[in-house]
Amino acid sequence: MCLEILDRAGVPLNASEPWSLHVHNEKLWDRIIEHRQLGLAQGYMDGWWDCDPIDEMPTRLLSINVLSTLSPSPALAGHVVKSKALNRQTKSRAARKAKYHYNIGNDLYTQMLIQN
Question: Which of 26, 57, 61, 83 has the fewest CB atoms within 10 Å, i.e. the most exposed one?
Answer without folding.
Answer: 26
